[in-house]
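Problem: given the chain below (428 residues), write out its structure.
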Amino acid sequence: MNKLRGKTMNLSIISLIVLVIVVAIGFIKKVNLGFLSIGVAFFLGTVGGMSAKEIAAGFSSSMFITLVGVTFLFGMASNNGTLELFSKKIVALVGKHTVLIPILMFFLSAFISAIGPGHIAAGILMTTFAMYLAFEMDINPMATALYAKLGANAGCASVLSLTGVLAKNLSEPLGYSGFGLHLFLSTLLSGFIFTLVVYVIYKGYKVKADNPLKLSDIPKFNRDQWLTIIAIIVMVICCIGFKLDTGLFAFAAAAVLILLGAVDEKKAIKGIPWGTLVFICGVGVLINVIDTLGGITMISDFLTGFMNEHTATPILAATSGILSWVSSTTGVVMPTLFPIAADVCKTFGGANYVEIISAITATSFAAAISPLSTGGAIIMSSYSAARETTNEELNKMFKTLFLLSVANVLLNVLLSALGVFNLGGLFY
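Solution.
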């Protein structure tokens, strides 16, 4: 019996060491963790006595279909100019009231992220748009891009978006559901609070542009763009109002647009972030193997050893922020910490799963404006693409973005300790 227990413990420790090594390799070598994770999961699972079927069970086919469908549809909307033109028209509505642009950029990015594209696609689109807009209007490009990226991160936990879909797929096997609105509002609130901080730091209330966008100068939506807008509106109504499957409906909407000749199918297929999708689902395979071998339970037991029902949320929030500096929120942080959150709730009856995963998700995205993460990297690359940049400028930007991400993580840990992510228990 003791030998069996010792073997199980050894496998748990080995599985965790493997996870650390895989994340470290991905961080240092900049390789796709998804492909690496599937290969490592096969060897680790085989050593642990798992069958190929059990190992492959960690690959969520339903999530993969949803993510492909949504990114395919919104890739079309981006390629035919619908999203960019829509953004310009919204910004032009403020006219000479350019002081509203910072807050508008946040909510516009959050909206686009929430209806389907998610934080990566919306972040790339809106951050790049914000950077060029700032240079054109002669306003602070760094701050404007930050508003856009913070908005994209804040809106990405909706039930239609990648993060919301992942949260649902991770939580339902653990026995939790019906928290979609709570998770979305928690992440949105977190992002908005830090946006206000950035707004004050960069004196967004003093923004005055000499060259504001004029609605009369912006072209009207053409036939293809109107059809795309209608397709997206119908999808949002059907998926939120009638609970239809988001991924399958996105494929149906995309098929209609293709048949009507409103979109370029080939460009959209090329634009699907296949690497990101394999990243997310591939790491899920490795996490499933680690969980089966007892690694997740071991981490849970370690964390619960020095926390209680009152400190569980801020401790796990801080853990998610630290992990997010060196890994992906959707690819690593959520798949690793959501099962631990469930174990913590079983250990401490007063701990609330929905509150904890909301804190984990929000804090992880708080760290994602770091230049070591995709969000910060997008801001730096957009800046470099929009104008010539010196190494000194890039180094300063790197330092600023990292310090802001640290401040954002600390803010979210504080919000977690204060019970803000419970939202008064109104939405679950």
